[in-house]
Specification:
By secondary structure, the protein is an all-alpha fold. Helix content is about 75%, strand content about 0%. It has one domain. The model has no long low-confidence stretch (mean pLDDT about 80).
Length: about 100
């Protein structure tokens, strides 16, 4: 087992899924960077990167085998739920009386 797999707790059967996640993540970073540098369109919120990643993962999910599709779908749903919950909590405005 190589160092990256040990650090990230990926096993041999997860190596294709791991490689898929790395490639898609770098693709999202690359296209977002290009859009900012070339077109001058920058993200308003860092969570937009996550939602863009979810979009690409859903689009390319069909290219994985059935077992990896299930694991990736579960990871995506869990991360999406956490991100949406985080965004809702960020929007909650705390009144001044709560601080006093």
């Amino acid at each position: 087992m190589n160092l990256v797999a040990r650090v990230l707790c990926f096993h041999a059967e997860d190596s294709e899924l791991f490689l898929f996640l790395i490639v898609v993540s770098f693709w999202v970073l690359w296209t977002t960077r290009n859009k900012g540098m070339i077109c001058g369109e920058f993200m308003g919120n860092p969570t937009e990167l996550l939602f863009k990643l979810f979009s690409y993962l859903q689009r390319w999910l069909k290219r994985l085998n059935a077992g990896d599709q299930g694991r990736l779908d579960l990871m995506t749903k869990t991360t999406r739920a956490w991100t949406e919950n985080f965004m809702v909590q960020r929007r909650v405005v705390v009144s001044l009386e709560d601080f006093l």
